[in-house]
Each structure stands twice: as structure tokens, then as C-alpha cells.
Design a protein that fits this description.
Elements (H helix, E strand, L loop, with lengths): L14 H13 L5 H6 L3 H16 L5 H15 L2 H5 L3 H5 L4 H8 L10 H15 L6 H8 L4 H24 L7
Helix pairs in contact: 1-3, 4-7, 4-8, 4-10, 8-10
Length: 178
């Protein structure tokens, strides 16, 4: 399963951590496996899970777009765990595998995205592939479509999930839903 064994649900004694784990399972990203693995460090787990849930459920950037970005990054890293997960909220809002695949592949030419969405996908893509290209000119281009608060929302989302993807890949974890 994973190189670090997840705790069994009954082993999570902290009520706040149990509640966060349940919320993750309800949202679908992460599912309950990630929280059960990081639950061995309860205080850090609570902070990280609360942040991840906040980033996925709040903010002004479209949830479907954030979900596509999350999957794009997981695929870049080759993380089978996060690549397989789908946000139940994004799916309920109409996100399709066709749009996910387009966002992870040739989004620049896809008619499935607005120019603003392409810019956000480019931001994710470049932060991962060539962060030196994310310079003052790039941020000026971002500001044509996004507020500075939205740029920070997207950038923070990318940062947190990129790190989570790298970590889960090293654990050889697989989604419980897969």
C-alpha cells in the first residue's frame, strides 16, 4: 500500500483530526488515506488538512480550475495517488475527464479554456517546469486576468499541492478509491 502505513481510523484519537479526515473523504481530495498517513504528527496534520480544505473549498478562483491545476501537477510529478483523486465538488459542478486531460496536456490550444484559465494553467506549468520564466513580465500578464489576491490563491494552492504530490509519490501511495 504505502511505505508509511496509515493509521486505522480508530487510531486517530484527536476529535479535530478525525473531523478533518472525514471532511477530506467527503470532498475527495485528499481522500482519507493522506490524512491517515500524516495523522502520526497530529498537530501538523490538523494545520495542513485545514489549509488544504480551505484552499479547495473557499477563495475566488473557480474550484474546477484549481482541481485541473492540482491534477496537472500530480501528473507532472508522476504521483499515482493524487493523479487518481477527483474532487467530488468539482465533478458535481461539471468537471469532466476531457477537460482535465486538456488542462494537463495541450491547454494552450484547447477551446475548453478561457484565456484567463490558460494563464493560470501556464502559471502552474511554469512554476513546476521552469520557474525562472515566472518573472515580472509573467506577473504583469497574470494581472491582466487575475487580481493579486487570486494570483496568491493560485500560487499558494500550487505550492501546497506540489509538495504533497512529491511526498505521496515517495510513499508509493495509491488512492483508496482506485
Amino acid at each position: 500500500m504505502s511505505r508509511l502505513a496509515p493509521l486505522e481510523p480508530g487510531q486517530i484519537e484527536d476529535p479535530e483530526l478525525r473531523e478533518l479526515t472525514e471532511k477530506c473523504a467527503e470532498l475527495g481530495v485528499p481522500d482519507e488515506l493522506f490524512p491517515r498517513i500524516i495523522a502520526r504528527a497530529p498537530e501538523q496534520a490538523k494545520s495542513l488538512l485545514a489549509l488544504m480544505l480551505e484552499m479547495h473549498t473557499n477563495g475566488t478562483v473557480d474550484h474546477q480550475l484549481k482541481e485541473i491545476i492540482r491534477i496537472q501537477l500530480a501528473r507532472f510529478v508522476g504521483d499515482p495517488y493524487f493523479s487518481a483523486l477527483r474532487s467530488k465538488h468539482a465533478l458535481a459542478a461539471g468537471l469532466t475527464e476531457e477537460r482535465i486531460d486538456a488542462g494537463c496536456d495541450d491547454y494552450e490550444e484547447s477551446e475548453l479554456f478561457t484565456e484567463a484559465e490558460r494563464m493560470a494553467l501556464r502559471f502552474s506549468d511554469q512554476l513546476f517546469l521552469d520557474p525562472d520564466k515566472v518573472d515580472a513580465i509573467f506577473y504583469d500578464q497574470m494581472r491582466e486576468f487575475w487580481t493579486e489576491a487570486q494570483i496568491m490563491e493560485i500560487g499558494t494552492f500550487i505550492s501546497i499541492y506540489h509538495a504533497a504530490h512529491l511526498f505521496m509519490k515517495t510513499l508509493n501511495a495509491r488512492s483508496l478509491a482506485a
